[in-house]
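stuck on this:

***
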Amino acid sequence: MPKTPMTRRGAELLREELQRLRSVERPAVTQAIADARSHGDLSENAEYDAARERQGFIEARIGDIESKLANAQEIDPRLLDAEGRCVFGATVDVEEDGGEKATWQIVGEDEADIKAGKISYSSPLGRALIGKESGEKVEVQTPGGVKRYDILDVRYE
């Protein structure tokens, strides 16, 4: 299976979520199932059904996170020999043709959150920025049409 690029922070967040699911959520849902069983007939017990469904979601998420971490390739952009180029993990300051400025960090697919300024390396904008340097211009095809950006600065934080 191919490795999935991920920032160190993204991997830490997944490990924290996995720890919380294993140590807090799993025991809580196990207790909820036990409590629901104590109420008697399971065939008409909505609490039991809800707890079992929740348990299924938790176990699936644990499996998903374990798989992602097993296939993760943690990348620290400060250790790459990028010399001012946009690479995975880099933080990029851009200015749109209309003068609107934005700052984005190029991250893995699971870490992407446009509201937090994190874009996926596989998104149209992420693909357009990768490999470019400060001072270059990029064009990105978006659902709203072509957008043009000037790359103002590239940082590795």
The helical segments are 8-37, 46-70, 124-129. The mean pLDDT is 89. The two ends are 29 Å apart (CA to CA). The longest helix spans residues 8-37.
